[in-house]
Amino acid sequence: MTTQDLPTRRFAAFLFDMDGTIISSIVSAERAWTRWAQSHGLDVARFLPTIHGVRSVDTIRRLGLPGVDPEAEAAAITRAEIEDVGDIAEIPGARAFLQALPPERWAIVTSAPRELALRRLDAAGMPVPALLVAAEDIDRGKPAPDCFLLAAERLGVAAADCLVFEDAPAGIQAGAAAGATVVVVTATHHAPIETAHATIPDYRALTVDAGPDGLRIASAH
Predict the structure, then answer these.
(1) Judging by DSSP bridges, how do beta strands 214-219 and 206-211 pair with one another?
(2) Label partner for 144 (CA 20 to 30 A): which of 103, 111, 134, 179?
């Protein structure tokens, strides 16, 4: 699907992943993870694609490295990422798009820990939502739907009435599993993605039609 296939219905709320969806933090994140991977003798080129869209602790736990404490290692990586927010930038048009949304109608749902999420949003000059669901708020990270279900619950709406903006396979799967409609943001993709969901390159061609009966995406052109 393409931008022309965007849903025309109204939604109770919009839920946004953060990294790769409203901001780009790939360069700074991969710097921290490269150092970690090298220290553990991993094949960096093969490993780096696996870090995006999921919680750090889940990435490390999945490796099954002997003698490694996933919780402690994830905390160390988070500290390194908090210290290095160089190169973090807005996905084009995202700031204006978010600022046009009623505060009670949107949330950020990220696999990043809360402290890191707030640091990255600040570095990119992005608005901070009233509701931010972060890594420590759920027991099961993406691709489990828990984070999106929790966000919908806290906003007082049904997940099926939410539009999820995502970029990574794990997040796309989580949004769909929650019963939400999903739009895939391709701004940071290096190759075309095969997906049944509508896609947008960024937010520059979009506007928001916000009314008492919900939110609807409209085209700026």
Answers:
(1) antiparallel
(2) 103
Task: Tell me the two tokens of residue 106.
Answer: 């949107």
Instruction: Note if the pTM is more than 0.85.
Output: yes
Question: Cα separation of 136 and 118, whole Å?
Answer: 14
Q: 14, 105 in Cβ contact below 8 A?
A: yes
The reply to whether 19 belongs to the active site is yes
Output the CA angle 10-104-132, nearest 5 degrees. 110
In the chain the first and final C-alpha atoms are separated, in Å, by 19
Of residues 5, 17, 137, 139, which has the active-site annotation? 17
CA distance 81 to 117: 10
Residue 53 corresponds to which tokens in the numbers above?
């869209």
Whether residue 17 lies in the annotated active site? yes
